[in-house]
Amino acid sequence: MNAGLSRVYALAQRFSRLSVVLAILVFGLLRVLSINLPISAQIVIALLALALGIPHGAIDHLITIPSHPRSRFALFVFGYVVIALVAGVGIATWNLHGFQAVLIMSALHFGFGDAAYANEWLDAQGKTRHPLVIEIVYALPAGFLPVALPLTNSQSLSALNRINHSLGNWAGNHGGVIRQIVVAGAAFSILLLAARKAFNLAIDLVLLVLLSEFAPPLVTFAVYFGCWHAVRHTARLVPKLPKALKAASDNAVPRAYASAIVPGLYAVVGTLALGAGLMIWDPHQFGTGLFWATLVIVWALTVPHMITTARFDWKVLRT
């Protein structure tokens, strides 16, 4: 048992849940008052949340392999950048199919990453991990709820068209079916998790369902990505970074988080600067605004990040 590390995971859960509850209350109140948040305001919120979530995936090179020998480290960084460039070109060139591919990959990455987070927290508390079947039952809806459900909402069409006109009909005629499958799967998982007394996991799914129901699509994904997934993934980085782990062992939880966040802050500035540069360099492809250019960059970087993280997730989930 590691009490300090357990506090890090606990703080991640509290912050992520409180963020989602706050979003549910705010947008629930706006719905009662019949106030619709303008698309432009939703895009600003989503851009801020994307920026908030970027650092969690920007230090893969620090946690995946040792910095020595230099040749191996350089080869990893080179391969990482090449994959990101290829993914970025693919998404920018084939907007619709790139968007669909990233959605599926992201849903699996989010869901199984959150399941791995839950097991790592149990490890820190000295408790028995969830069995594999429970991890899968939780992971699938946990990943697809914040990705597929808001994007099958009737409000999503205008938002996606505003970002990029190629994405407005991303699901074709299957939006209703996708929505029904995700909702039915989530309901089944919540009941099964409650029956197995995995109440923490069941509560997570209930909150994600409510978030998707009350918040606009862009805000739903933004809140999930920046205030839920990124925060929980950052907690998972703490035991992999010696300085952050030392702070956690000393019960300095804020310092532990800072040690896992600060090394990735460069990516926020770099992403926004590159996004602005793409708008200027190719206004035809990225003329729909900074948000679309930023999304392309984030998605491109997410592809090698998901591949890298999958190795850690698999180790946690298979044990």
Task: For the structure shown, list the relevant keywords.
mainly alpha, 15 helices, 319 residues
Overall description:
The protein is 80% helix and 0% strand. The chain has 319 residues and is mostly helical. It has one domain (3-318). Helix 1 (3-32) packs across helix 5, helix 1 crosses helix 12 and helix 6 (132-151) runs antiparallel to helix 8.
Compact overview of the structure:
The chain is mostly helical and 319 residues long. It has 15 helices and no strands.
The succession of helices and strands, N to C, reads HHHHHHHHHHHHHHH
**Low-confidence residue ranges:** none
What portion of the residues fall into strands of 2 or more residues? under 5%
Radius of gyration: 19 Å
The dominant shape is: globular
User: What is the helix tally?
Assistant: 15
Oligomer kind: single chain
Give the topology.
Layout: H1 3-32, H2 39-53, H3 60-63, H4 70-93, H5 95-125, H6 132-151, H7 156-163, H8 175-195, H9 199-214, H10 217-237, H11 242-249, H12 253-261, H13 266-281, H14 283-286, H15 290-318
Helix pairs in contact: 1-5, 1-9, 1-10, 1-11, 1-12, 2-10, 2-15, 4-5, 4-15, 5-6, 5-10, 5-15, 6-8, 6-9, 6-10, 8-9, 9-10, 11-12, 13-15
